[in-house]
Amino acid sequence: MINFIKNFRKDENGAVTVDWVVLTAAVVGLAVAAYTTIETNSQTLIDNAAARVALENDF
C-alpha cells in the first residue's frame, strides 16, 4: 500500500490533465465574457443608431 501511494505521488499524468482542463475552462470563460461584452455594446450601438435614424426621419 505504501508503494502504491509513493507511485501515485510521483505520477504526473493526472496533474497535467488537470492543468489542461483548468486552462481550457479559463479560455472558454474569457471567450464567453468577451462575447457578452461585445454583444451588449453592439446592441447599444444599434439602438442608438436606430433612434438617430428615427429622429432624422421626423423632420
UniProtKB/TrEMBL annotation:
Report TM segments.
Answer: 20-38
Sorted keywords for this record are: Membrane, Transmembrane, Transmembrane helix
Q: Does the keyword Transmembrane helix apply?
A: yes
Protein name as catalogued: Pilus assembly protein
Which species is this record about? Mameliella alba
